Amino acid sequence: MPRCCACSGPDADRARTHLAALTGSPAPDGARAALLPAEPGFATGPFTVDGTTAVGEVTLHNRPELLAALAAAGSPAPAGCPDGELLLRLWLRLGAEGLRRADGMFALAVVDGADLVLVRDHTGTRTLFYARADGCWAASTSLRALRHWPALGTGLNLAAVRSFLTFAYLPGEETLLRGVHEALPGRVLRLAADGTARQEPFWEPAERLPEGEAPPAGTYARELRGLLEEATARRLPEGGPVGVLLSGGVDSSLVTALAAKLHDHPVHTYSISFGDRLPNELGYSGLVADHCGTRHRILTVSGEEVAARLADTVALLDSPVGDPLTVPNLMLAEAVAADGITVALNGEGGDPVYGGPKNLPMLVHELHRDDPSPEARAEAYLRSYRKCYEDLPRLLTPDALRALAGEPQPRRFVAPYLAPGAMHALLNQLLHCNLRTKGAHHILTKVERLTASRGVQGRSPLFDRRVVDHAFATPPTLKLRGTVEKWVLKEAVRDLLPAAVVDRPKSGMRVPVQQWLHGPLRELCGELLLGRTARERGLVRPDTVRTWMRREGTLLPRQGGKLWLVLTLELWLRAYDL
Length: 578
Description:
Layout: E1 4-8, H1 12-23, E2 33-37, E3 43-49, E4 52-60, H2 63-72, H3 83-94, H4 96-101, E5 104-112, E6 115-120, E7 129-133, E8 136-140, H5 143-147, H6 158-167, E9 181-182, E10 187-191, E11 197-201, H7 217-235, E12 242-245, H8 250-262, E13 267-273, H9 282-292, E14 295-300, H10 303-315, H11 326-338, E15 343-345, H12 350-354, H13 360-368, H14 374-384, H15 392-395, H16 398-404, H17 426-452, E16 457-459, H18 465-471, H19 476-479, E17 480-481, E18 484-485, H20 487-492, H21 499-502, H22 513-517, H23 522-530, H24 532-537, H25 542-549, H26 559-575
Parallel strand pairs: 12-13, 12-15, 13-14, 15-16
Antiparallel strand pairs: 1-2, 1-8, 3-4, 4-5, 5-6, 6-10, 7-8, 7-9, 10-11, 17-18
């Protein structure tokens, strides 16, 4: 997986050593910072503009527009300059406005004098981590690189363990490594030589609802259709075929239809099957593939393959993701790469941006809640995840619970979004929260990192910043219209797809986690979660794990999903030697 690193501090000799070690050339005399490119691929640099040096993982979808903006500002860029250099020039010449105009996937680290400046794209497609040790800041798109930074003495961050078991991902700045943080999307983070850190947003979704009488509903659908076409067109590769990960839901189906309409090269679609005996969406994905004329492949994923590949797949992720689709996602990326395709579109983004089913439990709760406090709403939001949050008192060991007693609660990650501020409508508050937590720290990063590990760029048209801006300028009643979720999104593409696909209720992919854990994964689960390493680490109680493995303990069994979280955590901790 292509990754990059950066380092900043007052020690010129150290800076020279770092730079020389990776580039083979000495840093200029008096250098006070160094940038460390890690591997070839999506990572580019180091490159220098007007004495300022940067390195990053940058893919820009609107280069002509950005080159024109620089030229208009009197600072033209070389036409063939790398995307990372172009982004650096935008920031140096136009500041936050230049970053706001950039449409793409990027994580950029810039040495600005003695400071290290980190920039992460609008919605968080690519990640960037940072830490401070021995009077020096270091940053990398690879958490593993920081894990092995000799100056950094780190260990397990117990508060992040609780967060992961609550959300099934890590929703904010914290990582599982103590003292290592994740840069937030849409921000410029300045890490100063004196050890202070300051961040400023260059983009944040804002509610812009019409005052007075709103335009007709069809106006919003037509505007959205235009934005979807532009977002998809910008993400299509030049001169070759494109892949689309097609589940059969409306989101991936509309991306497939738009790609087939707009691309002048073949469109290949890829779907997953877990076997004929399980409910699936292959009828819908096949219908869409036939309707759009794509070259369609179905990958059958067995429990045995998941068991054999789970550990290696988890190790590819900078932070664990408790999603049982990780191995299937990696296999899809391998299929795309085997077909010689380097760009794969996906339908991620429809739910957190336009009102998927995650919001319904919270809307029902709001009708009946007795406690009006923001804390009560945040607490209900955590419970709506239905992961291990309510099980923590009986899942974590007494020692772990005591160590956590003084740590901030997980609701701190969601509470700021669930109160009037940037958003006033409750649905928009929920969508904003989902976009900035699950969207940035689970959906986007999981797909991007797994596809990137196989040399494929995963691109998400529905997370386009202009599409997101349109969502928060659309009245909530057009996103959730009665009981119809994502109404305006469906209306925008109704003419492109069969009615059976547009009007079907969302079911989600049925992943046979229970069958895996009581079949091919049972032995692995027992060895890892009840073995010596896990016992000596002292995080989870073996008796609770045994109860869940026996499918006991709850009226409506959800132990499969909970065990999957604990198993994923254990595999990740072992991969990172924690």
